[in-house]
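Colleagues,

Please find the record for the two-part complex below.
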Amino acid sequence: MNGELLGRIGSPADVKALDPAELPQLCADIRSTLVTYGKAHGGHIGSNLGVVELTVALHRVFDSPRDRIVFDVSHQSYVHKMLTGRAQAYLDPDRYDEVTGFTNPEESEHDQFVLGHTGTSISLACGLAKTRDMMGDLNGGSGIGNVIAVIGDGSLSSAIAFEGLNNAAEQGGNLIIIVNDNEMSIAEDFGGMYGPLARLRESGGTAEPNLFHAFGLDYRYVEDGNNVAALVEVLEQVKDIDHPIVLHVHTLKGLGLDAEDAAAGLVEGRCEANHWQDPLSAADRLPGARKYYGEMAMRALEERFATEPGLVVISPATPGSNGITRAFRERAGAHYVDTGIAEEHAVAFASGIAKAGGRPALATSATFFQRTYDQLQQELALNRTPATLLVFGAGISDADNTHSGAFDIAMMSNIPNLVCLAPTSGEEFLRMLAWSTSAENHDPVVIRVPGDMILDGEREGHYPAFRADECPESFTFIGQRSDLPTPPAPDCPWNRYRISHLGSEVALIGLGDAYRIAEQVAAELTWDPKNPIDATLIDPRRYDALDYRTLDAIAAGHRIVVTIEDGQLDGGWGEKITAYYASLPSLSRDRQTHYRATITPQHVLNFGADKEFTDRVPMERLHDRYDLAPGRIVDRIRTALASGR
Amino acid sequence: MNGELLGRIGSPADVKALDPAELPQLCADIRSTLVTYGKAHGGHIGSNLGVVELTVALHRVFDSPRDRIVFDVSHQSYVHKMLTGRAQAYLDPDRYDEVTGFTNPEESEHDQFVLGHTGTSISLACGLAKTRDMMGDLNGGSGIGNVIAVIGDGSLSSAIAFEGLNNAAEQGGNLIIIVNDNEMSIAEDFGGMYGPLARLRESGGTAEPNLFHAFGLDYRYVEDGNNVAALVEVLEQVKDIDHPIVLHVHTLKGLGLDAEDAAAGLVEGRCEANHWQDPLSAADRLPGARKYYGEMAMRALEERFATEPGLVVISPATPGSNGITRAFRERAGAHYVDTGIAEEHAVAFASGIAKAGGRPALATSATFFQRTYDQLQQELALNRTPATLLVFGAGISDADNTHSGAFDIAMMSNIPNLVCLAPTSGEEFLRMLAWSTSAENHDPVVIRVPGDMILDGEREGHYPAFRADECPESFTFIGQRSDLPTPPAPDCPWNRYRISHLGSEVALIGLGDAYRIAEQVAAELTWDPKNPIDATLIDPRRYDALDYRTLDAIAAGHRIVVTIEDGQLDGGWGEKITAYYASLPSLSRDRQTHYRATITPQHVLNFGADKEFTDRVPMERLHDRYDLAPGRIVDRIRTALASGR
C-alpha cells in the first residue's frame, strides 16, 4: 500500500532496522509517495525520484547526524526528509507545507545548511571535515563522523564546485563526494567536461581523462545507481575512508514515472520537463510574468537575428522559467547559448561579446545574479561593455529564503556605470530592450523585467495607460531648474522621470512593479471626502541615477514626497532620494550653482522591504509587515501631513 | 646597451621586422629594462620576467589588435605594453607613471579589457571569439582573427577560470588558451590539481590525468617557455587553429635576476617574494596599516591556537599583504589554510567550519570579497554561521580602478544578518576580533580592518584617547528614549554608538577611518572666534544597523547631524541615518511607540565617495572632489546652519 512502510520510518534508525529485503519495498513506497505528492503539490520530483535508492542507502549505512550529509542545492533532499522524521509531510496532504523544498537546520538536526544555489556542497563539507579533523578525527571529540557531499552532474559546472574539488584533495582526511550523475542539468548539461564524463560512464569508470583524478582525487564508479543493495555495498566500503573520494553514481532522473503520470504533468527520464513538476502547468492557466515577458523579449530579439549576427541570448542553465522556450532555442541556433550553471562565465562571456561589437542579452533570476557580482562590477561596469542583463523574478515575493528577489536593487544599482531600468509595461520593456541591444547603447544595462503586478494590470486592460510619448518628458514643474551638474552616470533615453499625473501636496514615485502600488495609493488618497488629496504620480523608470531636475521641481509644489519600491529599503533606491533632498541646502559652491535656499519637501517617506530573509511568507503578510499595503501608505502620508514640522 | 633595441620597437610590426637572431637580444633588453624599472618603481616584476619570451613570440607570430590577446589579471602585461607603443613608459623614469599596471583599452588598441581580478580571461576570450564566429570566421567581417587568453597556473584555481575552460570546448572555433605555468600563485599554488599539473610538466605533457583533456580541450605542452625561438615555432603551428587548444607553457618567474638585484629587493625564481617588487620594502620604513593590523590580529589568534583547536585562519592566496607572514603560517600549521585564489570556496569553507563549531577568520581585500558575494549572502548570512571576515584595504584610496576599496560598505552592510564593525583603534580591533571568534558570537561578523588614517593616529600617540570603557555606553542624551523596536539585526556588544565628546548644535558621526576626519572637523569648528562650535563627536563602530536610541537622543539637541564614511555614499551607511530621520514623524503606530512628534534635526548631511571608479587618483584630489577635506565639511556645515529652514 502506498506509504505503509514509509509511514513507519520515524528516523534513520528505522531504516537500519529493516531487513535488507525490505529496502526495495521502502524505495517503492517512497517513489509512489513522491509521485502522488508531485501530482498534488509539485516540486523537484524528477531529481528526488532519481536519488531514492541513494538516499535510502546513505541512511542505511551512515549514522546521521553524527555523519554529516550535505545536499548540494538540496532540491533533491525530499527523500532525506522522509527518512529523517518528516515522512508525514509527504504522506499527508494536509501537512504538505510543513517542510520547505530545501534542507533546513530549523526543521531537523539531520539538515546541515539552508541551501538553494548550486555548487557549494563540497566547500561546505570541507569546512565540516576541517573542524572535525582539528578537534580530533573520525573518532575524536568533535562529534562529527563521515562527511558526505551529494552533488549533481549539472551543479558540477558551477564555479565554486570546481574550487571545492580542487581544495578537497589538498585538505585530505575523510570526505566522500557523491556525484549524482543523471546526465542532466536543469536543461541539458553544457560544457566540455560532459563528454569525458560520458566516456567515464561508458567505460565503467575506467576511461581517462578523469576530471576527478585531475583534481587529485580518489575515484570510484557505480553504474547501477538505482539499485539499493549495490549502493549499500559500495557505501559500506567507503565508510570511514581516510581520504577524500569521489563516488560517481549513475542514476535516472524521474525513475518510475509512467504514461499515466505524464498525463498528470509528471515526466520520466532525462528531459528538461522533469526538473520542476508543476501540477498546475497542465491546467488552462495564463502564464506568469516571467514566462510572459520572457517570451515577449525573445520574440522581439528573434526578429532581428537574420540581420544582426552579433545578437546573442545567454542563459545560465535556466531558460524555461524565463520564457526561453525549447522551440525558441532551436530556432535561435548560435544566437542562443546555454552556459550551464555558470553565471560568472555568462557575464564575462557577455562582456567579451559586447566588446567585440556583438549585443548579448543575458537572462536569469535576480537571486542568481548574486553569483556573479564581481563580473558585474569588473568585467561589465568597469569596462563599460554594452551587455543587457534581464533580471527575472525580482521583487518581494513568497518564495523560499534561498531565492528572494528583494535584494537586486541594492546589489546592482550601487555599482557605477550600470544603467538600471524598471519598465512598467510590456511595451516599455520592449523599447528598453531594443535600445539596450542597439548600437546606440554603449553601457551595460540592467532591465528589471516586469512582474505579476504589472502583468495583472496589463491583462485588466489598465495598461498602457501611461505611454511615454504622451508624457511631458522635459517637464519642469515649478520655477527654475537646478543646474546641479549631471552625475557621472551614463546617459540613456530614460534619464527623466515620467510625470503621469500632476497633482499637489503629495508626490508619489513608484518604481517598476511598485508603480502599481503608487497608483492605488493615489486613488485612495482621493477617497476621504473631507480631505481628498490629488497626488502627483511619477514613474521613474531608471533607478541607478536620480532625475535631479524633476526632484527639484516637485520639491517646491509638494509637502511630501513618497518613494515606493519592490525591494529592500536599506541600500536601495528610495533612500537616495531622501539623501538627495537632505543634502540640498548645503552643497558647497562648486558642486552646485543652485539658488541659495532651495525648497525641499517637508517629508520624504520611503516604502519598501525590511532588511531580512523571508521564507515562503504570503505576499499579503509581507506587504502588511512592510507598510506596503496602499491603505498603510495612505495612513502614514496623512500622519506626516498632520505632524507638520 | 640597456634598452637600445627595445627603444626601437614602436609597435608589433617592429617585432616582426627583426631578424630572428635579434629576438634573444630584444628579450635581454626587455629583461634588463624590467629589472631597472622594478628597482626604481616596483610592480609585478617577477611574472613579467617570466613571460618576456612568450610575449615577444606572441607579437612576432600574431597580428594584434586584429588577433586579440587577453591577459588574465593582466599584471603580467608590462612586456606587452613595451611592444605595443609604450616602451618609453618603462625606459624613461620620468614617464613611469604614464601607464597603469594592468591592461587598459584607453591606453592602447592592443589592450582588450581593464582587468585586475583573476580567472576571467578565458570567458572574456570566449566572448570575443563568439562575436567573431557569429559575424563570419577568422577571415570574415568581424575584423577579429585569433583569440588568445594568457592565464597563469595560480589563476587557474579561480572559480570562473574553470567555468571558462568548461565552456571553451563546447563553444568550438579558434581559441588559444595559453597556460603560463610558473609553478606559483601569489604564494605557493594550492589545490589538488597541482599534483597532476606537475606530472604533466615532468612527462612533457603526456601524463594522465590531464585536466584540460577532462574539460574536452585539445592540449599541447611547451617545456622551454623561456626560449623565444621554440615559442615562435609552436605559436606558428597553432595560429589559425580551428578549435580551442590549451598551450601549456612552462616558464620561470623572475628569470634573470641575480644576487645584486636581490640586494635591491628583487628576488629571482619561484618564491612568494617574487610576486610584488616594492623598491621601498628594503628601506627602513614602518609597515602600513594592512600589515600592521594583520600581524597584530594573527598574533592575537595564535596565542589561542594551543587551546582552541577549531580556530582557523583562511587566506585566499593573499597572505603576505595582510600581515599573515610566512613565519606565522609555519607556526600555525593546520590552523592556517591557503585556499588558492578561491574566495568562493574560502567563504563556504568558513561557513562549514563555523557550522561544525570551529571559529574561522578569513582575511582578504575589500575588492576581493566581491568575488564571493553569493556565499556571503547564502552560505554565511542566511545560515547565520559565526565566521569572521577581516576586510583589508577598505576605503577610498589612490589604488587602481580594479582594486578600489570604496565599495565594501554598500556591498556587505546591506546583506541581512551580517554584523559589520569598524574599529577606530588597534585595541578595539582586537576586542572585536576576540568577540567575533569566541563562543559568545553566533553570527557572521565583518570587521573593517583599520587603515592608515587610524594607524597614523595611533603612531602619533593620539590613540587610544577614546577608549570604550571611558565612554557613556548607555548614555541617553535628552529626554525619553525611543521605544522603536530593535530591528531584526543580530545582537552584538557594539550596538550602541560611543559618544566621545558631548557638545551641541552639530553632531559628527565618523565611521571607522573617517572617525579621524570627524575629529578634525570638530577641531576646525572651534576655530572661528566669532562663532565657535562645540560639536558632539560620535564613533558608531557598527554600520550594518543603526543605534536608534542615540540617534533619537541627539536629534533634539543638535540642529545638524553629519555622517562621514570612507566609502561610496550610494547604498552606504550615512544615507540610512538620513532616511531614518526622514521617516520618523510618520511611522505607523505598530512600527513604533514613539512619542507623536519626534524632534528631528534640521539637516542631516552625508559625506563619502561618489559612485564612480577612480584610477590612481591621489587621495588629496579625491578628498577634495568628495568634499571630504575637513575644511570643506566645515564650510558645508556652516552653510547649512546659515540656511535655516
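Confidence is low (pLDDT under 50) at residues 464-486, 588-597 of chain A.

Comments are welcome before we finalize the supplementary table.
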